[in-house]
Amino acid sequence: MTPMTTTTEGRSWKRAAVTGGTGFVGRNLITRLLAEGLAVRSVDNRMGEPRPGVETVTADLRDPEQTAAALADVDVVFHLAGNPSGTVSVENPRYDFDSNALVGLNVLEAVRGTPGTRLLYLSSAMVYGRPDTAPCREDDECRPFYPYGASKLAVEHYVAAYVAAYGIDAACARAFVVYGPGEDPSRAGAEPGQFLRWHLNDMPLRIVGSPDAKRRDFVHVDDLTAGLLIAALRGTPGQVYNVGSGTDTSLRELVAVIETATGRAARTTVDDTDLTDSYPLVADIGRLRALGYTPQVTLAEGIARLAEELGSNPAPPTLATVLSAAPR
Ligand SMILES: NC(=O)c1ccc[n+]([C@@H]2O[C@H](COP(=O)([O-])OP(=O)(O)OC[C@H]3O[C@@H](n4cnc5c(N)ncnc54)[C@H](O)[C@@H]3O)[C@@H](O)[C@H]2O)c1
Known about the structure:
Layout: E1 4-5, E2 12-13, E3 15-19, H1 24-35, E4 39-44, E5 54-58, H2 64-70, E6 76-79, H3 86-91, H4 93-112, E7 118-124, H5 147-166, E8 169-175, E9 177-179, H6 191-200, E10 205-208, E11 215-216, E12 218-220, H7 221-234, E13 240-243, E14 249-250, H8 251-262, E15 268-271, E16 280-281, H9 286-289, H10 299-310, H11 322-325
Parallel strand pairs: 3-4, 3-6, 4-5, 6-7, 7-8, 8-13, 9-12, 10-15, 11-16
Antiparallel strand pairs: 1-2, 11-14
Helix pairs in contact: 1-7, 2-4, 4-5, 6-8, 6-10, 8-10
Residues 20, 22-26, 44-46, 60-62, 80-82, 84, 99, 103, 122, 124, 175, 177-178, 184, 187, 190 line the site of nicotinamide-adenine-dinucleotide.
């Protein structure tokens, strides 16, 4: 096993733990870490498919003792586990708090108990709320309006506080809207995978909000995992890094990209009765770029690849969008 070494920070690792390793981003990150030559432990409360070279630990990270045991004896922890859904957080804010905020605290306590362990926490662009400007910079004001954004932001603040109070070695990454292979359609609420799955089943694409004013930064999971690795290797303790494509795309433009990738017109329905989330949410990626991050996968290329991976009749998405689930 060849340890990986950074040129800027002198970090050198042999063993990594990925919390949420059974999930969409976790599985893709593990693939990336294995390719880097690391020994990987996947920690999750759901059993995943066994993978060669991956140690699997089943643990509920809401429990502090299980968390400490699961994260012992590794050089770096990528903390991804938790509730990733704004919809679920609106329906069940206590579950969201326990899965994100409490789990985050348990992970920080475990890392505090093992000096020298590096931590990268995966936060979300939902912490920004409705940004005043686009693109968003990491120092912009954060005003989350779903419980999910609040719990993710709380853990970012805890990371900064643990760095200051206890000197732990930890940084945060804020992912924008992630798409790519391996999403579970019953858990995934992001538009690229949702729209494509509907389209490939000849179902109408349901646009919630304004097709033009709702603008997002869609980032392919391969770029995200590359960005997470760079942030972990080179990120300053206590610092936050946006990880996106840096590209601004409206939902109407996303539909056009899907039509081009599949070579046929899409049917769309528009529910613009609630424009709460019809705003631009796009990453300024300058801070991570300065550490060497360069997104590689254009939306056109990523959607074309995903269309091929999904085939003609993928399972359709079942998770409601956050606004259709929220009480009015
Ligand atoms: N997918 C996106 O578009 C996106 C965007 C921004 C941020 N994120 C963040 O990325 C991370 C991963 O998201 P994902 O899309 O892979 O979600 P996912 O639901 O596919 O994976 C999350 C994993 O965490 C596990 N988990 C949840 N609670 C746990 C607990 N108490 N103990 C142990 N394991 C637990 C789940 O079993 C699941 O396998 C989340 O932290 C999410 O907030 C995702």
